[in-house]
Structure formats: structure tokens, C-alpha cells
TrEMBL record:
SUPFAM superfamilies: MOP-like, P-loop containing nucleoside triphosphate hydrolases. Gene3D superfamilies: P-loop containing nucleotide triphosphate hydrolases. This is ABC-type quaternary amine transporter. Its EC number is 7.6.2.9. Coiled coil: none annotated. SMART domains: AAA. Residues 4-241 form the ABC transporter domain.
């Protein structure tokens, strides 16, 4: 198992558009790493530079002792010499080729003899649990089996490194969940390193050992799924991972007991200014807000406000709490009775409590 190292990777496209703007990462041998970020943040370009399908403008990529590319040294290794497997978003199989021919195709393409290619294809099919399906055609397989054939085709030429570019985004929700588990199982069984690209935070949390959040071609945050989900380092990451309450703190008007918010409103609590990181903001999820009497107040911030709007989510109510004329906090209150929320809470002033994250 080898470590994957990316140093100072940059890629600009003609017309001045910047896709990747200085990415450096050290990925542990055997780890499952996900590049997570919104559309256009540079995920595919980074992956294509790893695969050798794109030549970067700057930077160096090594996998163990193999130098994939070193721009300064003028070194570039062709894609078929990198011995990695790649699974793309468009999973399409060739409809008029058998399962065996589909999986062996990448090897045949690079000149591997038929017997050797078919032996390796058989191994890959065995890895994905499709022994006995070699002579079928794609239309004779279920959707899930077709996806496994595509996975086998991606694996067949890999020796230690797998790259996935949103491989599940064209699948229906149920198949997406089972293929996600399948991909992780394959990674563990093979003991390879994987780099996986997705814009779906839930998918990233479920499948990864390590998540790299990209924003406009740069690393915004990198860490374990728990760190990314629970301890975002910036308002941008907090927003991306679903913190639906993010407030800039008016530090000049705040004290040790009161947190004044830019735009009006205040929270009471022990978030002193010294704990605010460089962004001067606090964030929390609506699902973590409780009525103050239900939470031990010691570790929490509390606030008072009027419940202005309430909508039913099936197992909870999403309410908007007005803490100042232009400032509303979103809270998701579990409750089994719609009437109760509307009668007891709507239009009434209540005290709430929540644990916040400083940004
Ligand atoms: P992602 O996969 O995160 O959606 P991409 O890596 O595909 O992002 O694209 C990053 C940026 O680079 C986008 O602004 C995109 O328009 C631009 N880009 C990607 N490929 C090309 C290309 N071949 N030519 C010009 N611009 C490109
Ligand atoms: Mg992409």
C-alpha cells in the first residue's frame, strides 16, 4: 500500500477559468478519501490530473515511489502506466459486448493478450460477485448487476489506486445506497487507496475515512467525517454541511454573557469572543435547538424569541423564531401534535437553548 501525495496542484483552462488553485494533500495508504464540494469546485479536474487525463500547470503527484507528474521536473507518466482504476459518472456498458468483453476491454485496448485479459477480467468479476455471468449481455442483467460490471471494468487494470467520479449520481436512491456499501466493501477487500468524488455530503460522510472539502479550486477543510460534520472551520463549510443557522457576531457589542448578532438580536451564553475563530461567526443546526427547559443550560447558548412560522416535516416542526425584527433562528422541534405546536407556540415568546460552533 502506498501513500498518495499531491503538492501544489494547479490547473487553469484557456479563457482564464481556474479549475484547481494550489491543492496539497497527503493521503494515507489504504485510505478512502472523498473530494467533496459543489459543482464547478474542481473535483473532476483534480481526479483527471491524478489519472493523467489532464496535465496540470503546476504541482507534483506521487503514489509511493511512482512519480505520476512533476511539472517542475518536466515529468509526466501516461495514464496507462499509472496502473489505477477509474469509474466515471457515466457507467454505460457496451450493449453489444458480453460481460466478459466489457470488463476485458480496457486491457485489450492497451494491448494485453486475450487469455491474460480474460483471466484478469474473471478475477475482477469474482471481486464484484459476478462469477458465472461472463457470457451474458448487459440487457440480461438487473440494474445493480450492470453497475457491478461497470465497477469490475474500472477495477480490472488497477494495482493499488482507485478513482471514482460521482459513480452513483445516475442511479435511483435505493440502488445508490446499496452500491455505496458495495464500493466501500470492495475498497476494504482489495486494500487499495481510493479517491472518490461527490457533491453529496451524506454520501461523503457514509463512505469516507477522510473528507477534503473543495471550494473554488482550493481545500477549504480536510478531516474525518465527524470533524467535517460537527466542526466546520468556516461559514462556507458550515453552510455546505447543513448548518442552517449561521450568524455573524457583532464583537464590539458583545460581552462575556451576551452575544450580539450583526443585523440585530442577541443570544445569552458563554461563547466569549476569544473562542470565536477568524470568521467571527457562530453556527448551529436547527435540529439541535431545544426548548430551554429541556436542556442543561451550562454548555449552551440560550435565546428568547417569538415563534413566527411553523411548518410540518412529518416527524418534527420547522419553526422560525424571531429574535430581533430582522433576525430569525430556525429550529426543528420534534413533536407529535400539530395542534400543540400551533396553539402553544405560534405567536408566543419562548426561550430556547442550543450548543453552538464558533467559526
Ligand atoms: P467539478 O467536478 O467540481 O464540478 P470541474 O473540475 O469539472 O468541477 O470544473 C472546475 C472548473 O473548471 C469549472 O469552472 C469548469 O467550468 C472548468 N473546466 C473544467 N473543465 C474544463 C475544460 N475542459 N475547459 C474549460 N474549463 C473547464
Ligand atoms: Mg465533476
Amino acid at each position: 500500500m502506498h501513500a498518495l501525495s499531491i503538492e501544489g496542484l494547479a490547473k487553469h483552462f484557456p479563457g482564464g477559468s481556474v479549475a484547481v488553485e494550489g491543492i496539497s494533500l497527503n493521503l494515507q495508504p489504504g485510505s478512502f478519501t472523498t473530494l467533496l464540494g459543489p459543482s464547478g469546485c474542481g473535483k473532476t479536474t483534480t481526479l483527471r490530473c491524478l489519472a493523467g487525463l489532464e496535465v496540470p500547470d503546476a504541482g507534483r503527484i506521487t503514489f509511493g515511489d511512482d512519480v505520476f507528474v512533476d511539472v517542475k521536473a518536466g515529468h509526466y507518466t501516461a495514464p496507462n502506466k499509472r496502473h489505477l482504476g477509474m469509474v466515471f459518472q457515466s457507467y454505460a456498458l457496451w450493449p453489444n459486448k458480453s460481460v466478459m468483453a466489457n470488463v476485458a476491454y480496457p486491457l485489450r485496448l492497451r494491448g494485453t493478450g486475450r487469455a491474460d485479459a480474460e483471466g484478469k477480467a474473471r478475477d475482477a468479476l469474482s471481486t464484484v460477485g459476478l462469477v458465472g455471468y461472463e457470457h451474458r449481455y448487459p440487457h440480461e442483467l438487473s440494474g445493480g448487476q450492470q453497475q457491478r460490471v461497470a465497477l469490475a471494468r474500472g477495477l480490472v487494470s488497477a494495482q493499488g489506486l482507485l478513482l471514482f467520479d460521482e459513480p452513483l449520481s445516475n442511479l435511483d436512491a435505493k440502488l445508490r445506497l446499496s452500491m455505496r456499501t458495495e464500493i466501500r466493501r470492495l475498497h476494504d477487500a482489495l486494500g487499495y487507496s481510493s479517491v472518490y468524488v461527490t457533491h453529496d455530503q451524506e454520501e461523503a460522510l457514509a463512505i469516507s475515512d477522510y473528507i477534503v472539502v473543495l471550494n473554488q479550486g482550493r481545500v477549504e477543510q480536510a478531516g474525518s467525517p465527524h470533524e467535517i460534520f460537527a466542526k466546520p472551520v468556516s461559514p462556507w463549510v458550515a453552510d455546505f454541511v447543513g448548518f442552517d443557522n449561521i450568524f455573524e457576531v457583532d464583537t464590539a457589542n458583545s460581552s462575556e454573557e451576551r452575544i450580539a448578532l450583526v443585523g440585530g438580536g442577541e443570544l445569552a451564553g458563554d461563547v466569549s469572543q476569544s473562542t470565536l475563530r477568524r470568521h467571527g461567526s457562530i453556527a448551529f443546526r436547527s435540529a439541535d435547538v431545544r426548548f430551554a427547559q429541556e436542556l442543561a443550560p451550562s454548555s449552551c447558548v440560550t435565546f428568547r424569541g417569538v415563534v413566527r412560522a411553523s411548518s410540518y416535516l412529518g416527524d418534527a416542526y420547522r419553526v422560525e423564531v424571531e429574535v430581533a425584527p430582522d433576525t430569525r433562528v430556525i429550529a426543528t422541534i420534534p413533536d407529535s401534535s400539530r395542534e400543540q405546536v400551533q396553539e402553544k407556540y405560534l405567536g408566543a415568546t419562548h426561550e430556547f437553548a442550543v450548543e453552538t460552533t464558533s467559526l
